Amino acid sequence: MSARTAEPPADGLPEKDLRAIRDALVVPQDVYGFDAGLAQALAEVRESLDVTKLDKFVHTWWLIACDNIRDPEGRVEMYERADRVQRLAARGEPVPHGDKTWKQLFADRGIEVDL
C-alpha cells in the first residue's frame, strides 16, 4: 500500500473516500458509528455483491465528516443534547421539543435534504 500524496481539497473538506472520511471525524461517537456502520455495510456487500449500500454509506459519512470539519463543537453539543434527552425520556420526564423541522435543522448545518 502506498502513502497518500494527494493534497486535501482547497475547500478543506475531505475527499469522498473511506480513509479521508474517517480521518476527518473528530467526535468519538462519530468514529465509533463509522467503524460499526462500515463493518455492517461491508458484510452486506459481501453477502449481496451489491456495492450500492457501500456507496450510500460513503455519501452519508462524507456529509458527517464535512460537518465534523465545519463545526466540531456543534457535533459535540448535538451528542450532549441527545444524551440529555435520552436521560429525560428514561426517567419518564417531558422531552423538550424545538420549533424547527428536521429539514430546517439540516439546512442550518449546510445540508440540503428532501424530506
Total strands: 0
Tell me the number of helical segments per DSSP (H or I, 4 or more residues long): 5
> How many structural domains are formed by the residues?
1
Strand content: under 5%
Low-confidence stretches are 1-8
> Element order, helices and strands?
HHHHH
Overall 3D geometry? globular
Helix content: 55-70%
Straight-line distance between termini: 41 Å
Mean pLDDT: 86
Biggest beta-sheet profile: none
Rounded to an integer in angstroms, the radius of gyration calculated over CA atoms is 17 Å
- The structure class reads mainly alpha
Strand-helix topology:
Layout: H1 18-24, H2 28-48, H3 52-70, H4 72-90, H5 102-108
Helix pairs in contact: 1-3, 2-3, 3-4
Detailed description of the structure:
The chain is an all-alpha fold and 115 residues long. The protein has one domain. 63% of the residues lie in helices and 0% in strands. It is built from five helices and no strands. Helix 1 packs parallel to helix 3 and helix 2 packs antiparallel against helix 3. The longest helix has 21 residues. The chain is globular, with a radius of gyration of 17 Å. The N and C termini lie far apart (41 Å). The N terminus is likely disordered.
